[in-house]
């Protein structure tokens, strides 16, 4: 149930249009529960039929989920590819127009535009990371459900099925990761050089509120991830090691101080 | 980290990034198709014909992964015949998969030879129940399920919620085989939900048919693909291009295959658009012609162009508005965010968190991949041992005449295959073996766990197999167990 709760939290904290694209974990769990635990070899007649039906329904739902992930992921990926190029062109345009060597150098305009671009690009970066997070959390959920299924029915669905999942578009996040890294280098280029350490620290302390939107979501995602990896009751060969951040308290404080409720 | 090619080919019909193409077993499915290719869509009264049709319709798509524009490597994943095929193949996609579900069940319920299910009428290839992995026969039988699931896309966009999903599955699960015809109507309904598209059906279809035919035949001659397993495809796809039948439900399929864009492809797109005078003036058809990318349909270009236009517009107008909305809320909550420097610092903080999250996600993903690979390796080891165990048994009882002679041959083949696979996996395994301590800890329990997960029938043989293990894998295993 822990995962289910965490997933729910994540969903709540995520961007509105994403909320129904996550794994229907609860539904799948219900279906698994419905499956009888007597080995099918011992069933006969109508109970076998019932089992087959339930199983079919489970598989169907599982596959629908995967389709859902793929469709959403690929579409988002396409959007990001477009935006990635757009952001670069936008920066170029601003520099060419208002920059120091541009056609109409204007420091005020330049600064203003660059500030906007910085905000946009950081949010863009965040959104991409959230997509990777989306992919990952859904994968985790699937793995868990399959494990439950195998446990319940004594079947061997998990291993081969998860192999297939690994190849799915929604799990192959390499392209997005690449875009994220490129974005980071753009950001480094666009942000002014690191201010004096004290000033920076001061400002950081002043900002303990994660506003609505991307930032909040990423903080939530990070915390969720940490929680999920804390150590499970059913540690198995397929579990991930616990996750420990050095300054997790800091991140926690950002999260807890968030005053703005997500609408 | 790539899966051992032979192994994955056995399973998957098509992957996108890895581009493994159709499974080599696919050609063997061709003889299975009983019905003539020209058979049009309509009454799905026969599972065989349904299967045929789906295969037909799917073929052009998997095929269209052969892109030839210079440098532009788009990954067509209307290989959703590819990917979800593999998922669906043993399972139940939202429509009339009853026969398939029986196959799936027979697999997962290890060795249920005969299922007394009321709706098991498909005489298609029955999966070998001895294998716990999805056998070739199985994966070949339904290379293309996803066409029905394409119909889910409009549903997904407009009604996407759990209820639809499970009710869809409920409908299928509870309805009888014969009710497949309802799907036809339901599919139409789903299609009509998606308004902007319906008006373009004829247009798209006409374009698609024209585009697909030459493309498919062209690509059949382009054999030097990214991988060797594509080769079986071209030969077969040529026959199938006529399958794009102009019936209403078929509309959804050709127009809807999921396309996976890449930055290179997008660059080519932008260039084409600029050549045509900008995003406002460029038309999908023009862009499509200019891009000259195999497998790209006008539908893809259309939707991409739409997104492109929105994205261009956004920085100038609505994105600014959205930013203002967000920033105004932030201002309400924190009065400190006034000076430019502080804003920048806030952004830096945000970046840090985001970077950290991304880093962790990447690490997590790699771990997950490695875990699964480990599991798969162990599974194969077991299979191999199991088969060699059975083989020696059979050899010892070879005096006895039995039809098992055939199956032992098959097993020999698969053993040979698994052996070559394990060799490759051994090499892969030596990779993970060299990793740091934390993952080693994982690998070790993973082995232990894997043994426990093995099917009950094999469990008793495990200790035996351990003793009988060949020298090569054995030391490796012991090493990691330290």
Provide structural commentary:
The complex is a heterodimer of chains A (263) and B (482). By secondary structure, chain A is an all-alpha fold. Chain A is built from nine helices and no strands. The longest helix of chain A has 53 residues, at 46-98. The model of chain A is unreliable at 257-263 (pLDDT under 50). Chain B has 482 residues and is an all-alpha fold. Chain B has helices at 5-11, 26-29, 47-63, 83-88, 98-108, 136-141, 146-150, 152-159, 162-174, 180-193, 195-198, 201-221, 232-240, 248-255, 263-275, 284-291, 298-316, 318-333, 340-396, 404-433, 437-453, 456-459, 462-468, 473-481; strands at 75-76, 259-260. In chain B, α12 packs antiparallel against α13, α16 crosses α17 (298-316) and α19 packs across α21. The longest helix of chain B is centred in the C-terminal third of the chain and has 57 residues, at 340-396. The relative contact order of chain B is 0.10. Classes of the chains: A mainly alpha (263), B mainly alpha (482). At the A-B interface, α3, α4, α5, α6 and α7 of A face α4, α5, α8, α9 and β2 of B.
């Amino acid at each position: 149930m822990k995962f289910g709760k965490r997933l729910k939290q994540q969903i709540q904290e995520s961007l509105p249009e994403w909320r129904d694209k996550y794994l229907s974990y609860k539904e799948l769990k219900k279906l698994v529960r419905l499956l009888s635990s007597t080995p099918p070899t011992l069933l006969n007649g109508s109970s076998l039929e019932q089992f087959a039906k339930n199983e079919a329904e489970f598989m169907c739902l599982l596959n629908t989920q995967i389709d859902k992930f793929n469709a959403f992921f690929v579409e988002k990926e396409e959007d990001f590819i477009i935006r990635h190029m757009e952001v670069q062109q936008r920066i170029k345009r601003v520099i060419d127009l208002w920059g120091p060597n541009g056609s109409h150098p204007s420091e005020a305009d330049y600064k203003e535009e660059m500030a906007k671009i910085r905000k946009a690009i950081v949010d863009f970066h965040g959104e991409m990371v959230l997509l990777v997070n989306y992919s990952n959390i859904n994968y985790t959920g699937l793995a868990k459900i399959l494990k439950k299924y195998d446990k319940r029915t004594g079947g061997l669905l998990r291993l081969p099925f998860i192999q297939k999942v690994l190849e799915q578009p929604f799990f192959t996040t390499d392209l997005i990761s690449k875009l994220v890294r490129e974005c980071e280098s753009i950001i480094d280029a666009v942000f002014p050089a690191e201010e004096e350490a004290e000033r920076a620290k001061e400002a950081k302390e002043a900002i303990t509120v994660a506003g609505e939107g991307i930032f909040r979501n990423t903080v939530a995602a990070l915390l969720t991830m940490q929680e999920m990896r804390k150590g499970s009751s059913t540690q198995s060969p397929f579990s991930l090691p616990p996750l420990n951040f050095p300054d997790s308290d800091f991140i926690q404080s950002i999260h807890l101080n968030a005053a703005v409720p997500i609408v | 980290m790539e899966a051992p090619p032979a192994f994955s080919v056995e399973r998957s019909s098509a992957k996108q990034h890895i581009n493994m193409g159709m499974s080599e077993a696919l050609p063997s499915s061709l003889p299975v198709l009983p019905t003539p290719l020209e058979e049009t869509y309509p009454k799905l009264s026969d599972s065989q014909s349904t299967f045929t049709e789906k295969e037909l319709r799917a073929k052009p798509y998997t095929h269209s992964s052969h892109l030839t524009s210079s440098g532009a490597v788009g990954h067509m994943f209307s290989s959703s015949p590819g990917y979800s095929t593999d998922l669906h193949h043993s399972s139940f996609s939202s429509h009339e998969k009853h026969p398939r579900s029986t196959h799936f069940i027979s697999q997962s319920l290890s060795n249920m030879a005969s299922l007394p299910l009321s709706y098991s009428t498909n005489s298609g290839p029955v999966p070998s129940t001895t294998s716990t992995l999805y056998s070739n026969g199985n994966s070949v039988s339904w290379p293309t399920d996803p066409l029905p699931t394409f119909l889910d896309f409009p549903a997904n966009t407009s009604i996407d919620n759990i209820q639809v999903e499970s009710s869809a599955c409920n409908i299928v699960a509870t309805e009888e085989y014969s009710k497949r015809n309802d799907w036809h109507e339901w599919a139409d309904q789903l299609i009509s939900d998606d308004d902007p598209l319906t008006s373009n059906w004829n247009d798209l279809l006409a374009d698609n048919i024209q585009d697909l035919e030459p493309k498919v035949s062209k690509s059949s001659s382009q054999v030097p693909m990214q991988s060797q397993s594509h080769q079986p495809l071209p030969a077969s796809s040529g026959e199938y291009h006529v399958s794009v039948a102009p019936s209403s439900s078929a509309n959804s399929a050709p127009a809807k295959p999921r396309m996976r864009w890449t930055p290179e492809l997008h660059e080519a797109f932008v260039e084409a658009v600029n050549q045509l005078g900008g995003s406002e003036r460029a038309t999908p058809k023009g862009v499509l012609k200019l891009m000259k990318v195999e497998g790209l349909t006008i539908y893809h270009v259309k939707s991409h162009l739409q997104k492109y236009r929105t994205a261009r517009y956004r920085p100038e107008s609505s994105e600014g508005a959205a930013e203002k909305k967000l920033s105004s809320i932030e201002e309400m909550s924190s009065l400190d965010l006034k000076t430019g420097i502080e804003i920048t610092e806030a952004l830096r903080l945000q970046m840090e968190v985001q970077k950290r999250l991304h880093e962790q996600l990447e690490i997590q993903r790699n771990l997950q991949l490695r875990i699964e690979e480990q599991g798969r390796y162990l599974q194969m080891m077991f299979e191999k041992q199991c088969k060699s165990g059975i083989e020696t048994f059979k050899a010892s009882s070879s005096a006895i005449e039995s039809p098992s002679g055939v199956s032992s041959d098959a097993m020999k083949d698969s053993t040979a295959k698994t052996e070559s696979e394990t060799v490759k996996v051994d090499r892969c395994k030596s990779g993970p073996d060299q990793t740091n301590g934390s993952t080693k800890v994982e690998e070790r329990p993973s082995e232990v766990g894997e043994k426990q997960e093995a099917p009950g029938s094999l469990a008793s043989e495990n200790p035996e197999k351990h003793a009988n293990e060949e020298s090569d894998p054995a030391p490796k295993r012991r090493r990691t167990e330290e």
